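Per your request, structure below.
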C-alpha cells in the first residue's frame, strides 16, 4: 500500500513538473515571436496610420499603411512612398526621379516634355502661387512627389524635391479601416 502511494505521489510530481516546464516553453515561444515581430517592424518594415486625406481614393484617412524600409534607392514613378515632412509622416506618389524635368502648365503635368495621363487621378494638377518654380530638373538622390488628391495638398509643389534619405520606405500594402 505504501509503495502504491509513493508511485502515485511521484506521478503527480512528474505531472506538475511537466506542466510547469510546458508553460515555461510556451511563454518563451510567445516572447520569441513578439520579439521577432518588434524587431521586424522596427528595422525592416514600418507601419503607420494615415491621417491625411490627400491620397484619396488610393489611401484613405484612417487606413493602415505597411511599408518596406530598404529599397529606397530603386524608387520608380508611380511608387507610393512614406516620407517625413514637418515632423509628420505622409504618404505620397513618386512622379519623377533624378534627371527628369517636371513642369506644370495650363495643359497639365509634363514629365520630360510629355503630358501625363495619370490613372486614378481625378483632379487637374495645377501650380501653386507659392512654392517651387517650374520647369524643375530633379537632382540626383531626390524624387518629386505629388498627392493623388491634387487640390490643396501639400507636396513637392510646395516643399520641392524630397531627398531619398528623407523617405521612410515604399508602401507594400494598405489595410482599409471599415466603419462599423
Amino acid at each position: 500500500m505504501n509503495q502504491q502511494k509513493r508511485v502515485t505521489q511521484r506521478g503527480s510530481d512528474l505531472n506538475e513538473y511537466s506542466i510547469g516546464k510546458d508553460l515555461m516553453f510556451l511563454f518563451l515561444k510567445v516572447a520569441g515571436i513578439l520579439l521577432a515581430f518588434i524587431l521586424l517592424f522596427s528595422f525592416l518594415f514600418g507601419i503607420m496610420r494615415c491621417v491625411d486625406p490627400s491620397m484619396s481614393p488610393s489611401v484613405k484617412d484612417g487606413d493602415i499603411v505597411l511599408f518596406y524600409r530598404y529599397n529606397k534607392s530603386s524608387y520608380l514613378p508611380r511608387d507610393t512612398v512614406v516620407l517625413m515632412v514637418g515632423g509628420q509622416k505622409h504618404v505620397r506618389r513618386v512622379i519623377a526621379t533624378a534627371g527628369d524635368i517636371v513642369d506644370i502648365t495650363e495643359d497639365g503635368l509634363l514629365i520630360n516634355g510629355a503630358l501625363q495621363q495619370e490613372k486614378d487621378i481625378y483632379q487637374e494638377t495645377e501650380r501653386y502661387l507659392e512654392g517651387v518654380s517650374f520647369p524643375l530638373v530633379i537632382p540626383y538622390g531626390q524624387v518629386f512627389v505629388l498627392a493623388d488628391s491634387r487640390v490643396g495638398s501639400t507636396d513637392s509643389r510646395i516643399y520641392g524635391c524630397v531627398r531619398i534619405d528623407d523617405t521612410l520606405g515604399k508602401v507594400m500594402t494598405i489595410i482599409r479601416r471599415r466603419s462599423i
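The chain has a mean pLDDT of 83.

Regards,
D.
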